[in-house]
Amino acid sequence: QVQLAESRGGLVQTGGSPRLSCEASGRAFSPYHMGWFRQAPGKEREVVAGIDWSSGRSYYGDSVKDRFTISRDNARNTVYLQMNSLKPEDTAVYYCAAGITPRRIVDMGRRNAYDFWGQGTQVTVSS
What we know:
It is a single chain. The chain has no helices and 11 strands. The strands form 2 sheets. Strands 2, 4, 5, 6, 9, 10 and 11 form a 7-stranded mixed sheet that branches. The protein has a 4-stranded antiparallel sheet with strand order 1-3-8-7, with no helix packed on it. It is globular, with a radius of gyration of 13 Å. The chain is mostly beta strands.
């Protein structure tokens, strides 16, 4: 079994640049990719970003391109999400996810590409 533990989000001002982290633990953890999704109240869960664990190639949702950056530390089994230029519409619960079957980069935007999910962490952007 794999456990994913996100760092605490919190309250951030518009324009802020917080970083989320997600550490994976569990026996023989070896993902093919990891990612971040988010869900705002009354909305569908949407992809934020995904990253290929081996190559580091990444995928971004349209709403965060050029503002957010996903990265990983393979040795620490940790994925990061650097968020820049935050807007109130970025307010959501952010979820970390891990996939253990190979996927194309473009498929990292799909929820069904991921097998394990974290509990989520709230990020609130004040206007």
